[in-house]
Amino acid sequence: MASIRRTLSPVYHDRSYQNGAGFSSPSHKFLPNGNSKHFPSSSSSTHLPLLFTAVNFMYRKGWRRSFCRCLFFFLIGLVFGITPFGHFDTDIQSNDFAFPELKPPYVNLQLDHEIVTSVSLGANTRLQERKEVTDLIEPLKQLIIVTPTYNRGFQAYFLNRLGQVLRLVKPPLVWIVVEEKAASFETAEILRKTGVMYRHVVCTRNSSNVKDRGVHQRNAALEHIERHKVDGIVFFADDDNVYSLELFESLRTISRFGTWPVAMLAQSKNKAILEGPVCNASQVIGWHTNERSKRLRRFHVDMSGFAFNSTILWDSKRWGRPFSNPIRQLDTVKEGFQETTFIEQVVEDESQMEGIRPGCSRIMNWHLHLDTGNLVYPKGWLLEKNLEVTLSIK
Q1: Mind spelling out the 3-state secondary structure of 168-228?
Q2: Is residue 339 annotated as part of the catalytic site, yes or no?
Q3: Is the pLDDT at 218 greater than 80, yes or no?
Q4: Which residues in the chain belong to E strands, given as ranges?
Q5: Pick from 69, 184, 195, 265: most CB atoms within 10 A?
Q6: Counting Cβ atoms within 10 Å, is residue 147 exposed (0-12), middle (13-18) or buried (19+)?
Q7: Do residues 383 and 153 make contact, with C-beta atoms less than 8 angstroms apart?
Q8: By the 8 A CB rule, do 149 and 155 touch?
Q9: Phi, psi (rounded to 5 degrees) for 324
Q10: Which residues of 251-270 are buried (b: 16+ CB within 10 A; e: fewer)?
């Protein structure tokens, strides 16, 4: 066993003590009984004499006594803390720190008829179903609405009313508006404000000698459709007629040529007459007519009572047409015969027609004969290009 004893400093040998008090050294202040303290043998015992020497040097400084004492005991505890005692197992395996394996409880699942072989997320299944439904839905056919217009009292009112109706129809839809001689700024402004995709076409032919001025305008629209091969369902919609949204949605069901009955206000303005097909389901079997002068017509249809596929205009082989002459309205026939002569160029007979809305039992548009030529305006009002009513400054 190694013993540690602090040697007396020469300074303390020269000091005398009264009352026979025994000699005490500074080391006894660390060890109250005056006995030397014995420590167990360890690898750190060789460093202790140097530690006591450093403490003894600093202990001589009077005001540093308390600090040195605390430092001394701290170093003693640190040395004993880092000194290995006993036996440590250094053979540590990786499995000693492994997490325990978690296994789900055993469930005895019995199925009567089905065996589950795979599980998939419901979200992916719904997305796949939506994709399949989208693939099955065919895109809507484009509607080609042809409207001839000219300068008259209610032109702005008629165009705005028809434009607001077309605005509610589901796209795709293109509105072809045909004017005479030149495209007016007022008409173009009305078309821009409707928010409907449109094409502003000008008819350069003189219609003054034709009683139905809309003949040349409709032909100009047909030439535009044929030249640019605009694919869709062509419908002649005059701006002074009244149309329902149901009619425009029904036009998309037409394959080649479709027709439906139209209610018209008689010239006497005191009764309504019906003109159009009589149908058995979607098959045309007859015609409604009440005017004796028109009984010689082959097809009793109003101009706004039929529609057809635009590809008939340029693809004669597809529809089996025996000739490839351009399909146009004729200005040499009598009034009221433009419809039937035009339809005779598109179809051969009723077997190639489709009754719109099975049974043709619904009235989806009205043809109103409104005479706006003799309108009386209040004094002081002027009509500017017959589109807008303005009040003169004078």
Answers
A1: CCCCCEEEEEEEECCCCHHHHHHHHHHCCCEEEEEECCCCCCCCCCHHHHHHHHHHHHHHH
A2: yes
A3: yes
A4: 143-148, 173-180, 198-203, 233-236, 242-243, 257-259, 262-265, 272-280, 283-288, 306-309, 354-355, 365-367, 381-384, 388-391
A5: 184
A6: buried
A7: yes
A8: yes
A9: -115, 25
A10: bbebeebbbbbbbbeeeeee
* Partner residues linked to 309 by β-bridges: 233
Mean of the pLDDT values across residues 288-298? Answer: 74
Which residue carries 């795709």 as its tokens? Answer: 172
Q: At which residue do the structure tokens 């065996």 appear?
A: 115
In which residue are the tokens 């693939």 written? 135
Burial 214-239 (b: 16+ CB within 10 A, else e): bbbbbbbbbebbbeeebebbbbbbbb
- Residues in CB range of 216: below 8 A, 6 or more apart: 203, 205, 207, 210, 331
| C-alpha torsion sign, points 128, 132, 137, 139 | positive
Whose structure tokens read 């015609």? 287
How would you classify the pairing of strands 143-148 and 173-180? parallel
Which of 393, 375, 392, 374 has the alpha carbon at shortest distance from 384? 392
| Sign of torsion over alpha carbons 243, 249, 250, 256 | positive
Q: Which two tokens stand for residue 80?
A: 């004993």
> Which pLDDT score, from 0 to 100, does residue 270 have?
77
What is the biggest distance separating any 2 CA atoms in the chain, rounded to whole angstroms? Answer: 163
Q: Which two tokens stand for residue 264?
A: 């018209």
* DSSP run (H or E) holding 38: none
Cα 69 to Cα 30: distance, rounded to the nearest angstrom: 8
Write the pLDDT tens digit of every residue in 114-142: 554 555 544 455 656 666 655 567 789 99
Q: Which of 179, 180, 275, 339 is catalytic?
A: 339
